[in-house]
Amino acid sequence: MSFPNYNKASHVLATCFGVGSIPFAPGTWGSLFAVLLIYNITFLQEWIVLTTVSVVALSWWICVEVYQDTKSDSSEIVIDEFAGMFVACMFINHDFISLVFAFLFFRFFDIVKPWPISWVDKNIKNGPGILIDDLLAGLFAGVLMLAIFKIVI
To answer: Can you say whether the dihedral through the CA atoms of 67, 71, 76, 81 is positive or negative?
Structure first.
């Protein structure tokens, strides 16, 4: 089966409604999609922890479904970056500057993949494996942002 199959809800959601099909840097676009939603939808800001838990749970299901269909981690799957960005944003205020830095730190950790993110990326090869490294990158970015705020403010 080719990916994405836009007749399947899990594939549509895995690409964040087609954002993952942008040919250049789809993971960055998926992350940016999350930031734009968090910045512009007040409900997400006020209920960020509950929303993040829901996004992670939904992303887990989506990654498992898509992996069962394709047996691969296509670059068009960006729901993992979307969820990772929500994790990063649990730790910060949702003003423009904070979101920009959370986005930059998340992308750094997602691309560079320091240990243990690199270990997860190399060793967990299934539906949850698509997601877990991005959740860790989000955790690293969020904790770094929290540390910066504690030191600076």
So the answer is: positive
Distance of CA 95 to CAs 84, 113, 141, Å? Answer: 18, 26, 16
Sequence ranges of the domains in the chain = 9-143
| pLDDT tens-digit readout, 33-74 | 999 999 998 887 789 999 999 999 999 999 999 999 999 999
Q: Which long-range contacts (CB under 8 A, 24 or more apart) does 67-73 make?
A: 67/126, 67/127, 67/130, 68/127, 69/1, 69/3, 69/5, 69/8, 69/10, 69/11, 70/1, 70/3, 72/3, 73/125, 73/129, 73/130
Instruction: Kindly report, residue by residue over 87-124, the tens digit of the pLDDT.
Output: 999 989 889 999 999 999 999 999 999 999 999 999 99
Burial of 31 (0-12, 13-18, 19+ CB in 10 A): buried
- CA separation for the pair 103, 85 (Å, rounded): 7
- SS3 assignment, position 13: helix
Under 8 Å between Cβ of 86 and 38 = yes
pLDDT, residue 149, reads: 87
CA distance 79 to 85: 10
